[in-house]
Amino acid sequence: MAFDNKYYSAAEAEMSSLRAENTRTLAAHENEIKTKHPEIAALSDALAGTSAKLFMLISDKSGDISTKLAQLEQENLSIQAQLKAALKKHGYEENYLEPIYSCKRCKDTGIAYGKRCSCFMEKVKKAASDDLNKSSPLRLCSFKDFSLSYYDDTLIAGIGTTARKIMEYNLSVCRKYADDFHLPYKSLLMRGKTGLGKTHLSLSIASEVLAKGYSVIYGSAPDIFRRIEKEHFNNQSDEETLDMVIKADLLVLDDVGAEFESKFYVSAMYNIINDRMNASMPTIVSTNLEHSELGKRYGERTYSRLSTMDELFFAGSDVRIKKAEQM
Ligand SMILES: Nc1ncnc2c1ncn2[C@@H]1O[C@H](COP(=O)(O)OP(=O)(O)OP(=O)(O)O)[C@@H](O)[C@H]1O
Ligand SMILES: [Mg+2]
Ligand SMILES: [Zn+2]
Q1: Per residue in 58-109, pLDDT tens?
Q2: Domain limits at 104?
Q3: Same domain (yes/no): 195, 278
Q4: Ligand 1 — pocket residues by CB below 6 A?
């Protein structure tokens, strides 16, 4: 998959500051050893000396050099061993004076075996998904500021339970979902009226899953579908949003049904849900729509997939309004 050039540039910049940082760290190590343990620094200089001589010998094509070579190699190995021992003796790592690489595979060049290194592609992907998540307050919501006190605890006529009981159950399902998150994993369908905490709980899950190191894409359906449509018809950036949405470890597709009604969106919705379900990749879908509306809007095939998700029904009255009244 091809990403927009700006994400490659972002990854290059990141690699370059990584190299600079590692170079600075090594220089600091060298300085420290020089001032605190000059005898170790001398060993390190001697090692550099034998390496240089070794190099000169190898590039010297004249005469028989094998004896000298073996001798120098021996010397080199022996100083290396002394250096390691001396470092260890003073409580340092053996490789304290060696070049530092964040990625051993490509030595922080971003290229390994003639191809972009996986560490580099991870950075490109991260830049692209950060950009997509930028508009969402991914870290703003957490389980700990979700309060059950906003939900009425009087019995709902005909249902025999209370909004608070229902929401207590939803909260516990969401916590457990975040705690047990692994791949492949099940999907959730959050359904209910406005202001009842669907976005709050889905973001709480998202931030915990993110903290576990999984890739998470959060987006409202209007925003995600608009991006997908734009990329599809502009055909410049190679549909990277659709690709990320399909491949993310966890997709939170919020406000489903709030997007403008269009055939293109309906088919995008089907592709996303179908591809992810086929790969057993988890999705959290939130919506204000009733079942009948979901079926009518997205069609049988999408609806039958949505209805296999674990459903959480959100009850109560608008928390957004209650919070505003308290202020
Ligand atoms: N139980 C709760 N405790 C604390 N804050 C809450 C709770 N439920 C919702 N909120 C807050 O109220 C506001 C509305 O909640 P949220 O956005 O999650 O509702 P929603 O169900 O996603 O609504 P909509 O269907 O309109 O998208 C948010 O600021 C959210 O943080
Ligand atoms: Mg919401
Ligand atoms: Zn690498």
Answers
A1: 777 666 677 778 888 888 899 999 999 999 999 999 999 999 999 999 999 9
A2: 5-119
A3: yes
A4: 141, 145-147, 150, 194-200, 255, 288, 319-320, 323
CA dist 226 to 68, 90, 99, 119, 202, Å? 70, 60, 47, 30, 21
pLDDT in tens, 251-267: 999 999 999 999 999 99
My answer on whether 111 and 210 are in the same domain is no
Q: Whose CA is nearest to atom 26 of ligand 1?
A: 194
Residues 309 and 212 in one domain: yes
Quick one: pLDDT band at residue 57, thresholds 50, 70, 90?
confident
Q: How far is the CA of 251 from the centre of ligand 1 (A)?
A: 19
20 pLDDT more than 70: yes
Q: Would residue 43 count as lying in a domain?
A: yes
100, 22 in Cβ contact below 8 A? Answer: yes
pLDDT at 62: 64
pLDDT, the chain, mean: 91
Q: What is the CATH number of the domain that holds 171?
A: 3.40.50.300
Element housing 261 (H / E): none
Phi, psi of 314, rounded to the nearest 5 degrees: -95, 125
